Amino acid sequence: MRSRVAAICALLVMLSVAVSGAVATSSGQGATALQAEPANEGVTMTIDLQPNGDARWEVSTEFSLDSENETKAFETLAAEFEDGNSDVGFSVDIFKRASKAASEHTGREMAIEGVARSHSVENQTGRLTLIFTWTNFATVSDDNYRVGDAFNTSSGTWLPELRADQQLVMLPPEGFAVSSAPIGFRNETLRWEGPVTFTAEDLEVTYRPADVDTQTPGPERNDFALVGLGVLALSVLALAVYMWYVRREDDPPAPTASANGGDSDLETVDTTPDDEPATEPAEPDEDVDLDLLSDEERVERLLRAEGGRMKQATIVKETGWSNAKVSQLLSAMDEDGQIEKLRIGRENLISLPEQDTDAEN
Q: For residues 66 and 45, is the Cβ–Cβ distance under 8 A?
């Protein structure tokens, strides 16, 4: 029976072999995906964008350590990794080839600098971490900060996919906020979770200085002003109700029929005040400007229109968004409890939380 230590060693060998050809040079063979085969808990690539356009990368590979022997084996492998042994963990050479290809494609000089390697063991999890700085990763001007072209080569993007055990996290540069992005985000942080495929446009993100309004153009918004308007509206409504009540008290009572059942000499008067509120509220206006809705609100509106449940593929069709954007948006909404996802065969069934998500025949 193969031991757990041998399994870790075998997985690490697979990892090294797979990533050795992950990024082709611009002169030759075309770009391919990061072919890492991480053990157990997967790989996280975190891009910490810097205000000057550089990007600090942190690539972590995690391993589950369930015994003392596995922990000792991991410590041995970690020592080799920190010594720069390319047969263990992610090799920085992958990203050097990617930056060279991207530099030739964009005409912007790039380099991989400040390479460091570390490891840690915590809660029966071993982690190998590769850290480096990718210079000129983004373009910076007075009014915006753009990311995306560094993922491309003359043969296409060098990162065409993430596997199910991989994720990519992009942190904003200090002093900037997201202006446009292909997926939803939280606290200016974008997160792609595999499996997902990418085109060149799927990794393009624009930031603006944080003191600039990055929302959809429209009237300036001030929270105190909104509160004041709300108080004023309530005051006007209260005054209108009071005036109506006073008018009603001042109006003479309507004549009634005579005691003997005959009609009185006076004409019947409509006792309903002219300004009495309607007995039924007006129907809400369904003509909503979709441009004013957030992505999450559009999805919830679609679900409500379909009775609270629809397939993920239908959401892609109705919105016209890419598969990658819809997948990431729904994952974030599922985590927040805004929707529920149910896997049925090869499809996802999306429903509002109050809906029963049992599969239908």
A: no
Token pair 């910490």 is found at 48
Helices (H), 251-322: 295-305, 312-319
Could you give the percent of the chain with pLDDT greater than 70?
67
pLDDT band at 181 (very low <50, low <70, confident <90, very high): very high
The pLDDT score that the predictor gives to residue 260 is 43
What tokens does 113 get? 């600098």
> For the stretch 318-356, what's the b/e string if a residue is b when 16 or more beta carbons lie within 10 angstroms of its beta carbon?
ebebbebbbbbbbbbbeeeebbbeeeeeeebbbbbeeee
Query: What ranges make up the beta strands (E) of 123-229?
Result: 125-134, 139-140, 145-147, 152-153, 156-157, 161-162, 166-171, 176-180, 190-193, 196-197, 205-209
Residues 126 and 16: their CA atoms lie apart, in Å, by 17
DSSP lists the bridge partners of residue 85 as: none
Domain count for the chain, please give it.
2
Query: Of 209, 240, 255, which residue constitutes the final position of a domain?
Result: 209
Residue 237 has what pLDDT?
A: 79
Does some domain include residue 275?
no
What integer best gives the mean pLDDT of the chain? 75
Is residue 250, in this structure, part of any structural domain at all?
no
Per-residue pLDDT tens over the stretch 303-354: 998 888 999 989 988 888 888 888 888 888 988 889 998 888 778 899 998 7
Look-up: residue for tokens 């550089």? 54
Given strand 347-351, what is the order of strands in its sheet? Answer: 309-311, 347-351, 340-344
